[in-house]
Amino acid sequence: MQNTDTTLTIATRESPLALWQARHIADRLASLQSGLAVELLGMTTQGDKMLAGPLAAAGGKGLFVKELEQALLDQRADLAVHSAKDMPADLPEGLELMVVGPRAEVCDALVLHKDHAPVNGSALASLAHGAVVGTASQRRLCQLRHARPDLDCRPLRGNVNTRLRKLDSGEFDAIVLAAAGLQRLGFEDRISALLPIDLMLPAAAQGALALEFRAGDSALRDKLAPLCDAKTTLTVGAERAFSARLEGGCQLPIAALARLEADGGLHLGGLVGAADGKQLLTDKAFKKLEFSTGQRASSEAVQAAAALGRSLAERMLANGAAQILRAQRAAP
């Protein structure tokens, strides 16, 4: 299928959050081009079917995108919409990625069972010794165990609605989810607390949306360009470059968050840890970009942001991250 001036097909998973994201992009594109008809091609991925055990053991984030990417390569769809944090660093040959903005809330959210209430505003501290907490993320698991080694952390899979149902049924005392997904689905009132970044550094690109399409489709690239946000492009670019250099994914406890100042100052924080929470290495980096608010992100600024991510990763590898990651990859 080739997109035309009046039609566009978007491949999407069929979870409520994925459909919300696809419809959100469809609406934004339709508002930019009068008469544009956007169709959704709903798909079930391998990751949607494999719900038992930790995601890392099932094969990682790529399980949620392969079918969508094949639809692009087969020309059954023109565009795929993803949560940017779910995208592997390496794309299949013939595809390219565009991160769009503005970025939603980057923090993780703690959602407590209805029988629990935050004490003195600290939801995590209010959990009893040995409380059962659900998460599917090695990154979250590492930081939870580091902050509260007494917690009983257990795997939690399924879409947002499924995870909330498991919490409400009493399987868990609390669960940790991306705040952006809860907000997009209208579940903001379920958030007991946003976990501060000094306690729970987010995944690279968390809160951003990514659009994947066939490389060389300049007409579609031009259609998508107005959805880009320079701040999101540069911060996510730095974070993904950091994760890519570490060969990160959901199988490894890796986190990154960048912040862009109005004058172009780019701050990047990174984390590498062990799943048991006993080892946690953090570091920060800064670079002044040739950028100011209101400008588009130049290719030079994009390259500089990515270079900052790689340099921070290199420094952390030299300072102990390589040994931590080697041990994590060798772990059963």
Describe the overall structure:
This protein has 332 residues and is of the alpha/beta class. The chain is 35% helix and 23% strand. The strands form 3 sheets. It has a 5-stranded mixed beta sheet, sandwiched between helices. Strands 7-6-8-5-9 form a 5-stranded mixed beta sheet, sandwiched between helices. The chain has a 3-stranded antiparallel beta sheet with strand order 11-12-13. Helix 10 runs parallel beside helix 11. The longest helix has 32 residues, at 299-330. It is globular and about 60 Å long.
Order of helices and strands: EHEHHHEEEHEHEHEHEEHHEEEH
| CATH topology grouping of the largest domain | D-Maltodextrin-Binding Protein, domain 2
Q: What is the CA–CA distance across the termini?
A: 43 Å
Q: Count of helical segments? A: 11
Characterize the largest beta sheet: strand count, sense, and whether it forms a barrel: 5 strands, mixed
Shape: globular
What is the number of strand segments?
Answer: 13
Beta content comes to 15-25%
Helix content: 25-40%
Low-confidence runs (pLDDT<50, min 5 residues)? none
CATH class of the largest domain: Alpha Beta
Radius of gyration (CA) equals 20 Å
- Please give the domain count: 3
Strand line-up across the major sheet? 2-1-3-10-4
Structural class: alpha/beta
